[in-house]
Amino acid sequence: MADDWQPVASRESLARRAELLRSIRRFMDERSILEVETPVLSRAGATDPNIRNLATTAHPPGAPDGTPLYLHTSPEFAMKRLLAAGVGPIYQITRVFRDAELGRVHQLEFTMLEWYRPGFDHHAMMDEVRELIAGLGLEIEERVAYLDAFESAVGLDPIRADTSCLVRRAAALGFASDPPVRPVLIDFLFSELVAPRLGRGTGVFVYDFPPDQAALARIRPGNPAVAERFELFLNGVEIANGFHELADAREQRMRFEADNRRRTGAGSGVVRVDENLLRALEHGLPDCAGVALGIDRLLMVLARCERIEDVLAFPFARA
Predict the structure, then answer these.
(1) Fewest CB within a 10 Å sphere: which of 31, 138, 205, 319?
(2) Can you list the domains of the chain with their CATH numbers?
(3) What share of the chain is helix, strand, coil (3-state, %, to 5)?
């Protein structure tokens, strides 16, 4: 169209983004958290079966056939290498990329704030996220365990329920997993029945996820065992995702390999594992927690917008 060259976000919205970034940097400076930059391109990608990587090919000297590279879906792996090298508490504001994600709250390219705190567990990290959000004029007044939130909305225990029960509940909503994959079913039911109810009026943290939803979080033994992970919801939308970080290189490799087996089964292809991260974990990652926060989604809440496009100068449709 003739006017597609124009930005979507208003000047007021662009100014709000600039002020948000200034506020975040002030918050981090006050706590002596160091701002860092890491590469957007990596030889390794995200193995998570729920994430589709964007890839490209570079042609550096000595590689006439090209070197395949991934655009990072998060700066997490490189930042953990800095932590293992002893840099201390760090944060980064960066553009990240995820293929096939486009909709009301998704873009292929978006802005992420990610930070790490040595000596923190996921509860201490929730405290700090709450402080950041409070400084922006938003309230978080509730923390609820994943099991309780899921059981209340879905009527099933996400850890103990038979997979067949999850299959039937998902099928009633028109979703089929063939063959049945338990983490896929749980994630679908959570996104359809639990998440839209969360954070209405004030924000809510959901914490202690089922072990098969651990991602890169530690698993705490118990009956039941739980993953030390949390998510923040505002207005039914996930704003942040944090972990008490897994530091065991052997366990991390096993999870990467399990991810790639699931990807192979789903026909989405194997993703190259980040050996540099694994070597950093072998060297020693300090006990720490980290969190990734979506800047654009947070702006949606602050500006009371319904679509992520409204807070972007040039969303994908106008790229």
Answers:
(1) 319
(2) 11-318 (3.30.930.10)
(3) 40, 25, 35
